[in-house]
Amino acid sequence: MYTILLVDDDQATLEANEQFFAENGYEVFCSATGRRAVEMIQTIKLDCVILDIDLPDEDGFDVCSRVRTFTSLPIIFLSNYTEEESRIRGLVIGGDDYVCKPFSQRELELRVRARIHQRYCDRPAEILQFDGLIINTGDRTVSFNRRYGEFSRIEFDILAFLARHPNRIYSYEQLYDNIWNEPLNESRHNVQARIASVRQKLFDLCPGKEYIQTVRRKGYQFVP
User: Fold this and answer.
1) Could you tell me the pLDDT band of residue 42, with boundaries at 50, 70 and 90?
2) For the chain, what percentages of helix, strand and coil (3-state, to nearest 5) are there?
3) Least packed by Cβ within 10 Å: which of 63, 81, 126, 194?
């Protein structure tokens, strides 16, 4: 079951879409304001957001920009604005798709499903190399100067994700959103424990090097 958030101040549209997606097996959350939508995106494990542009407190473009600072969650704009300028703006600021009203609910559902599948599909194999450290996402191996370390699935996913974005700081919530498929809830200690394990294994494999660093009160970053 996929979980989606509908953001629209048009109550009729909100209720109609809620009923349609629920009948098609989705778990559905709703919001009529941008502020509430951002709060829900930060606290609920979602698979996709369907976002209107005209909202009573802030427009959907601003909501999308704010959301993109902490998650890559698929966002599909659903709007009365049909002009090319609006569609392009929605995609440029981080939207994954743009559907104009009036719309087909079936087409919208297919677009939602496609974006969710795109997000969860396997990435192409990559070779991430930092001096002697080599992270191979194809065969999921980690080596340093031809010595190999042993990392569990989730440990490898943490390391590969951070290494793909060197010098960028990620919070607990962002790591959960991008790596785990469950909400953070009260499992922050689980994140800390897993990252501590990754750091120890990296240190054992690469003595004297500290690739993953803690940024106080902000999170973690991979430093080449």
Assistant:
1) confident
2) 40, 20, 35
3) 126
For residues 192 and 219, give the distance between their C-alpha atoms in angstroms, rounded to a whole number: 10
Element (H, E) at 143: strand 141-144
Residue 191 to residue 170: CA distance in whole angstroms: 12
Strand order in the sheet with 3-7: 27-31, 3-7, 48-51, 75-79, 97-100
Question: Is pTM, for the whole model, over 0.70?
Answer: no
Classified as helix, coil or strand, 148 is strand
Output 78-86 pairs: Cβ under 8 A, ≥24 positions apart. Answer: 78/8, 78/50, 78/51, 78/52, 78/103, 78/108, 79/52, 79/53, 79/54, 80/53, 80/54, 81/53, 86/53
